[in-house]
# Entry
Amino acid sequence: MRKEPQRAQSLFLSRDESWLRFNRRVLEEAEDASNPLLERVKFLAITASNLDEFFEIRIAGVLQRIEDGYNDASPDGATLRESLDAMKEETQRFVADQYRCWNKQLLPAMRAEGIRVLAWEEMDEEARRFATDYYQREVDPLLTPITIDPAHPFPRVLNKAMCLALLLRRKRRGTVGPVLGVLTVPRALPRFVRIPSSKGSEDFIFLADLIERNASGMYRGYEILSRAAFRVTRNSNLYFQEEESRSLLETVRAELHNRRKGDAVRLEIDSQADPEIVDRLRVNFELDESLVYHTDGPVNLSRTMTLYGSSSRSELKFKPFVPRELRLNRKSIDLFDEIRHRDILLHHPYDSYDGVVGFIEAGARDPNVVSMKQTLYRTSADSPIFQALTEAAQTKEVTAVVELTARFDEASNIRWARDLEDAGVQVFHGIVGLKTHCKLSLQVRRDPDGVVRRYAHLGTGNYNPDTARFYTDLSLLTADPEITGAVHSVFNYLTAHSESDDYRPLLVAPLTLAESFIRLIHREAEHAAAGRPARIIAKMNSLLEQSIVEALYAAAHAGVEIDLVVRGICSLRPGLRNLSERIRVRSIVGRFLEHSRLYYFLNGGDEEYYCGSADWMPRNLFERCEVIYPIRDAQIKTRVRDEILAGYLADNVKARQLQPDGSYIRLQEAGRPAFNVQEYFIKVAEGKADIADIPKPQPAPEPKKRPSQPKKRMPAATAAD
# Structure
């Protein structure tokens, strides 16, 4: 990674280096032979997909700011140009490591298991006949060969589209110099073509290799001098300006069209490519040489995910498990009766997401439910939640707040919005300038006793049953009048921009969330200074907000023990002498994507627990509508503390601990039993484990007693340690 500049060490880690280190932890899972083989292939594909987004968003954004004349320094002290150089250097190393993993580890291991990715020369006659027939039937009709000359300018290559470049020379005499040909590989076809095998193995050939083999048939009259697969990544930031004469929906729709015109930010090309092909492409896409990435294998590693889905070898995948279903108390008449008597916490994917879907479907069917309100950030194809809302709209008031600008989901969300409106649902798009990221579902019901009550679901994850199978999230089902009343106020804020001075007991961004979290952190510092019990445990996806980091430093300096479980970006630098020695940061990367957000404050012994949709990131605290909700039920608090949080802090298999220099180390220690928290949660769901199976963590050091003395100021955020 980037070396620290010669200036004093910053108190903040680089955002982009931290993200790249997260992706390296995912790559470690692909390299880990203890993972099932096809899961390792899947992890490698995820690293490639992650890297795509990093170029589309982060590197594209930095390039754009530099081109706009900016070179400001980030909190870690690096200027934009320094950050860009560091990102280029690290991504080049990372790509080399990806292909080393593919070529040296995964390909040989798959071949040993009878899963073969073959070159044309390795295929027998039967396989070649099948491949040729497949090409003629399925592939050739979709191809459009292009030759670049004065009459045929370079085609508009779509973002991340697989292409084939060919250096061509006319066979006819008198032709001056070679020309370039370009073929776009159809996106509709699988990148790996399954071919028959006489050896009982599962055999595949790359679609690009198959097209390359047959390219001469599309360029008759030319001699093919050389050829190479390539792929271009473009700036995919979604920029738009509000115009009074156009609705948000139409603005986003227009930007979706314009976004295809984004500048190129990366060229991936076969490492064996002729230098003339590389140079012609680089010049055409106006790319610096440092943004050309030579691939020692398939140009698009994210498509290796096809192998995972195409293979029937279940023994080479994680063992499937059945999530725990939500079961009602024998005395409960229905789900509403159950929620009326107790809050319900669901821990996905270990607790089935059917409980959330069932809540929304129950509201749609129940004639006593008179209105339903729902936020939708990301949805899925054939979503049962969408079906329930459209059916409910026939008999009751249904409101949906659909976020149009959910990154990379804009097109599908526009379709959802139109279809919901056509079904009679009142569709809103939140507040101009703010993404609606909160996860809320609210139902108003006239109960059998004649009382009108509100019932709510509040979550940490999207209303997407598909991703709920491999994202860890927390769901709360409640009829608590204070919580449901506050949810009602949040919907008023989203639909009418009706601000309230008080959303308690909820914490709502951008109105009260940041200041509330800082207040809660400062309160722990006050408890510690007064000798009262003080501790913070926080689990999130990313930690970047500078004011939060500074508050955590101050709390640790005051004596608060702090444990952070941060999956991805973390700008806080733990372990700095006299400042963050009491802060421990761990990242867990495993079978499921850690996505839940959970915040615990010991509060002098009167513990407080919060969950919600927000990370400690500037965008979550100030640029989105987010909701953090309290956990109030005593039994649920015990489960969160003794099962969920204790489990995460005990993991020593998939957990890595952040070091002061930004690196991560494994936590497994000699003499301590291996404990994988995700496997533990699966066993809990299956009834095969309980709280007693969690190893006791090493106790945190006791806060040192300080002699009475004048209060020392915490070092400034830009000071050296």
